[in-house]
Design brief:
It contains seven helices and two strands; from the N terminus they run ααββααααα. It is mainly alpha-helical and 145 residues long. Strands 1-2 form a two-stranded antiparallel ribbon. β1 and β2 form a beta hairpin. It starts with a helix and ends with a helix. The C terminus is likely disordered.
Length: 145
């Protein structure tokens, strides 16, 4: 199939397909005498794997190491290891995001609890001092010392 049809089937722009080819992720391409690219049906599968892999958080370099040179030559153990590592990475990121969310909620609560008798600048100083106190007494701060 030609690149336009492959683009329609995958939903990827032709420029993105060419890019994946240029960086060596998509190797399933043939050039006709007139320079037109033609792709076998497996190219659609590879492009879908690339798109879904990126959505799952894999970088192009990670995908390059995982994608088979042909569809019959998968590195099963490497694929499983990479998927397990990506899950671990995502779980660590979730923990960091949850911690950031807690901190932001705490700051928001402190700002919203502004006493009526102080102005915004004094409230900012109050909140900043509270953040400093909380940071120095938090379990994370103690364990990193």
């Amino acid at each position: 199939m030609k690149i336009g049809e492959l683009s329609k089937r995958t939903g990827l722009a032709t420029s993105k397909i060419r890019f994946y080819e240029d960086i060596g992720l998509l190797k399933l391409v043939n050039r006709s005498a007139n320079g037109y690219r033609t792709y076998p049906p497996e190219a659609e599968v590879i492009l879908n794997l690339i798109s879904n892999g990126q959505k799952a958080g894999f970088s192009l370099d990670e995908l390059r190491k995982l994608l088979p040179t042909d569809m019959d030559n998968w590195q099963h153990d490497n694929l499983l290891d990479a998927l397990r590592q990506k899950l671990t990475d995502i779980e660590e990121l979730e923990k960091k995001l949850a911690n950031s969310k807690r901190q932001l909620k705490s700051i928001l609560a402190e700002i919203e609890e502004k006493p009526d008798d102080i102005n915004c600048a004094d409230n900012a100083k109050r909140v900043i001092s509270q953040i400093g106190l909380n940071k120095s007494t938090s379990p994370d701060a103690k364990s990193s010392k």
